[in-house]
From TrEMBL:
Name assigned to this protein: Family 43 glycosylhydrolase
One GO MF term: hydrolase activity, hydrolyzing O-glycosyl compounds
InterPro entries (alphabetical): Glyco_hydro_43 (IPR006710), Glyco_hydro_beta-prop_sf (IPR023296), Glycosyl_Hydrlase_43_Enz (IPR052176)
Lineage: Bacteria, Pseudomonadati, Pseudomonadota, Betaproteobacteria, Burkholderiales
Coiled coil region boundaries: none
Signal peptide: 1-20
PANTHER family (UniProt xref): ENDO-1,4-BETA-XYLANASE (PTHR43772), PUTATIVE (AFU_ORTHOLOGUE AFUA_2G04480)-RELATED (PTHR43772:SF2)
Length: 307
């Protein structure tokens, strides 16, 4: 009896382990990585591309989370959040970001708002655990599209990225074509003050902020099809100096969406491409590469690898 149970449990563990190498997840299509280092584990949050093989648009209803203690073996921890958790939203579990504050985990999630405010909006969900489940923290959107500016498009409030500075101030960055940012209140679920815009040439989406030594790095998707580029600055709000390209566009998938972390003395960049069989524009796969800083603080160009 004991033996049978032990074998069953060993098998269950094995099926939850994804193999090392790119793409990280091999049994479903995944996109839009966000990563959080928490204690001795990396949590990787991804969108789930469910489009049919001949699909002509994204079909994304949920996010998935995996974790690893060595960046090689990944444990599938299921779906921490689904669009349905936001009663005011109707679709599109697009590129999210997750952070930890005062012992709680906050999941910033772009979704399609219901008919009361059509267009993309950003919700925030909270959990006591990095693997969720996450629940709507506000009952309404944190940022929603008011379509009041001449330049507004229905999907310009997407791709949230959260950054907590060393003085404790948290910022939310987001946007498509126009990069926006705002301070977050310490409760992490309300904006604190006005929404600012940042002028960055050829900015498309996927803004991401991190700090290395004393420099702030603003990475983002540039042009379309997208490549990953970055700028550096002396603070979380710039001013930003363009530094160049980190990663080339993919020949099949027009988006790339990066997340950058330090873990166990190394730096890594997550992104997505088309490398699973039958992969494509709406059937993407998340991959990871090591990222290296040059002695002058610039980031060395990173080729995409298949393994
Ligand atoms: O996954 C939907 C959208 O495609 C994301 O919001 C963008 O970053 C791009 O990856």
């Amino acid at each position: 009896m004991f033996k049978k149970a032990a074998v069953a449990s060993a098998l269950a563990t094995l099926t939850t382990l994804a193999q090392a190498g790119n793409p990280i997840v091999k049994d479903i299509f995944t996109a839009d990585p966000a990563a959080l280092v928490d204690g001795n584990r990396v949590y990787l949050y991804v969108g789930h591309d469910e489009a049919p093989k001949d699909g002509k648009d994204y079909v994304m209803r949920e996010w998935r989370v995996l974790s690893s203690c060595d960046m090689k073996n990944w444990t599938d921890q299921g779906s921490p959040l689904n669009v349905k958790a936001f009663k005011w939203a109707k679709a599109d579990a697009w590129a999210a970001d997750v952070t930890k504050r005062y012992g709680k985990y906050y999941f910033y999630a772009p979704v399609e708002h219901d008919a009361s405010k059509p267009g993309k909006a950003i919700g925030v969900a909270v959990s006591d655990k990095p693997s969720g489940p996450f629940v709507d923290a506000r009952g309404s959107a944190l940022v929603s599209n008011d379509m009041t500016r001449e330049t507004d498009i229905p999907w310009d409030d997407i791709d949230p990225a959260v950054f907590i500075d060393k003085d404790g101030q948290a910022y939310l960055y987001w946007g498509n074509r126009v990069l926006k940012y705002a301070r977050l209140k310490p409760n992490m679920i309300e904006l604190d003050g006005p929404i600012h815009t940042v002028g960055i040439d050829n900015f498309t989406e996927a803004a991401y902020l991190h700090r290395h030594d004393k420099t702030y790095y603003l990475s983002y998707s540039r042009n379309f099809p997208e490549e990953t580029a970055y700028a550096t600055g002396p603070s979380a709000t710039g001013p930003w100096t363009f530094r160049g390209k980190i990663m080339d566009m993919n020949k099949v998938v027009k988006t790339i969406h990066q997340a950058i972390i330090d873990f166990n003395g190394k730096s890594y960049i997550f992104y997505h491409n088309d490398k699973l069989p039958t992969g494509g524009e709406f059937r993407r796969s998340v991959a990871v590469e090591e990222l290296h800083y040059n002695p002058d603080g610039t980031i060395a160009f990173i080729p995409q690898t298949a393994e």
